[in-house]
Design goal:
eight-stranded mixed sheet, 22 helices, 3 domains, alpha+beta, binds fe (ii) ion, 19 strands, six-stranded mixed sheet
Length: about 575
């Protein structure tokens, strides 16, 4: 991957830190903090973060900057040698700067280092009044925060540079409805979320706000059990027209990880349905329960294959990986995360969530790994009502910033053999692993509309309630421009069986469901899923829902885990007695 200049973001920050350390040494600083920090090994996040001078106490700071370095009377204001930073009140993150031209500072390496350090310190740093910043300046600044060389650029005809994502409330001016589907970090389809993001507001409107959420604060305020669960989860995402045919790429990202630059706990998720294929849970089982689970699930090649792939891919630095994995559908886990956000105590919510009311000329630098964001509904108000809203966004990757889960296992990016769709250069070309894991994740996603309140494989198509099973299949196929031949074949078979006994009809229905199961017809999902749903609904209407069919391996493992906990309680009690 091509990285801005000769460094990725992390080495660049370290280089800057070293410069500052040299500066301190030259000036003969004898302050204890600085001396201690200077002895930390170069390259650790602590060195990177602290040695930039951000954590210098007032005494050392005044030594460096003299009278100009005096702290403002307000506790939330800090002067640097370049600008004054005002932290957001109440919120645990966020700061703003006024009266400073970013454009003029771009050729000053020390000022740029200060800007980068302040972005990572405050997570959200807004420079107001940057109306003179041109698109080329915006790109120049962005290149100092990471590399713009990634596959997720989406050029709008009005964008002055393909690397600037132009967002607007008028599709002639820029893309609309960007990121409105839920709280998210940007870049979940890559091996790591973007290391940094910038937004430059060319036109702002009342109500066109963005909300930001501190991932550290969200995680720390979950109860212990939920934190434990989150730490075992991997977020699965993908990009490409036909992932099952190997077009595009699929990423496995730890839901919880330590921020690679600040070391703080953080999270990675997207709560929009289209952006999450599902979740994988690492299941720690002891050897006895593992053997039992293997016997119970013998013959299930689908899960077994995916599990074997994951055991090879999700290894920690010592080469170990969990023996069991559970595959979870996207929606319930996403809903649980949404509830965790909504359920934050109001006081905590003030610290964890902030709303930014943008003004024209605002330039925001965002630590995308530390914060989730979502646009307010008012961002979509049409120009006729609120005026024009336009901003340019850049997103930067950093190859040094690959997240690792609590065990130390690194995020994985898989790709198939076809290169027609978007595929990152870093993606591991392992089509078999991608197919196996994808199949297991998709198999965990119920087709039963009643089970999750909606068919997650059905896309955005909204169907009226009380529509007959056949009509629903017909409408869905037509909407997706799929042939109707298969529906006609199924109809003919069902019609022939309908004249016989209920048992014959039921047998025919079951045979068709096996034959046209989506997991057996991976190349024709758009055609097969509506047909299978049709058959499933008929089957349910028959009142013969088979308990054996619904007893998936996940549930088997779940039952085993419950049994295991009972056994361990019993053993524990025995030992205590
Ligand atoms: Fe976004």
């Amino acid at each position: 991957m091509q990285v801005a200049g000769s460094h990725g973001l992390f080495p660049a920050v370290v280089a800057g830190s070293n410069k500052l350390r040299q500066l301190e040494t030259k000036r003969g600083s004898s302050h204890g903090h600085v001396g201690v920090r200077a002895t930390k090994p170069a390259g650790s996040f602590a060195t990177t973060f602290f040695a930039t001078g951000l954590c210098l106490c007032g005494q050392a700071w005044r030594k460096r900057h003299g009278a100009k370095g005096k702290r403002n009377a307000k506790a939330n204001v800090r002067m640097s040698s370049f600008y004054e930073v005002t932290a957001r009140e109440d919120c645990a993150f966020g700061a703003s700067v006024r009266g400073f031209s970013v454009k003029e500072a771009l050729d000053n390496p020390e000022a740029v280092e200060q800007i980068k350090a302040d972005m990572y310190k405050h997570r959200l740093l807004i420079f107001h009044g940057q109306t003179d910043l041109m698109p080329e300046d915006h790109i120049k600044l962005s290149e100092k925060l990471g590399s713009l060389d990634h596959i997720l650029h989406r050029p709008h005809p009005k964008s002055p540079d393909p690397r600037l994502l132009r967002v607007a409330n008028d599709d002639r001016e820029g893309f609309m409805s960007v990121g409105t589907s839920g709280w998210h970090v940007d870049g979940v389809m890559l091996q790591a979320p973007f290391a940094a993001q910038t937004m430059h507001h060319l036109h702002a409107i009342p109500g066109g706000d963005t909300r930001f959420l501190g991932m550290k604060e969200l995680f720390e305020n979950m109860d212990e059990e939920l934190r434990g669960l989150c730490e075992r989860l991997w977020f699965v995402s993908g990009v490409g027209e036909d992932l099952q045919q190997g077009e595009g790429q699929m990423s496995l990202l730890p839901l919880v990880y330590n921020h690679p630059f600040t070391g703080e706990k953080t999270m990675c998720f997207h709560l929009g349905q289209k952006y999450c294929l599902g979740f994988i849970e690492e299941v720690p089982l002891n050897a006895f329960m593992e053997a039992f689970a293997n016997v119970m699930t013998r013959g299930d090649g689908l899960l077994k294959g995916a599990r074997a792939r994951l055991q090879k891919l999700l290894v920690d630095p010592e080469g170990n990986s969990p023996s069991q994995f559970r595959f979870l559908p996207a929606l319930p886990v996403q809903e649980f995360l949404q509830k965790a956000i909504d359920g934050l105590d109001p006081e905590i919510q003030r610290q964890a969530i902030t709303t930014v009311e943008w003004q024209r000329g605002d330039l925001a630098l965002i630590d995308n790994m530390a914060l989730a964001h979502v646009p307010a509904p008012g961002t979509q108000t049409l120009p006729l009502v609120s005026g024009l809203r336009v901003f340019h966004r850049t997103t930067m990757v950093n190859p040094e910033a690959v997240p690792r889960n609590v065990r130390g296992a690194a995020a994985v990016l898989l790709a198939g053999p076809r290169r027609d769709g978007p595929t990152s250069k870093e993606a591991l070309q392992d089509p078999a692993a991608m197919r196996d894991i994808l199949r297991a994740v998709m198999a965990a996603t119920p087709l039963n509309v009643d089970e999750l309140g909606g068919d997650q494989r059905g896309g955005d198509l909204q169907l009226p309630k009380n529509m007959s099973a056949r009509e629903e299949a017909l409408r869905t196929l037509e909407e997706a421009s799929q042939p109707l031949d298969l529906l006609k074949v199924v109809d003919a078979e069902l019609e022939a069986a309908d004249g016989d006994s209920r048992e014959v009809f039921s047998k025919t229905l079951k045979r068709l469901m096996r034959e046209y199961h989506p997991d057996r017809n991976l190349t024709r999902q758009k055609e097969i899923v509506p047909i299978f749903r049709y058959l499933w609904r008929l089957h349910k209407e028959q009142g013969r829902a088979s308990s054996a069919m619904s007893a998936t391996k996940d549930r088997v493992v779940d039952r085993l885990r419950k049994k295991a906990s009972k056994i361990s309680v019993a053993v524990g009690e025995g030992m205590a007695g």
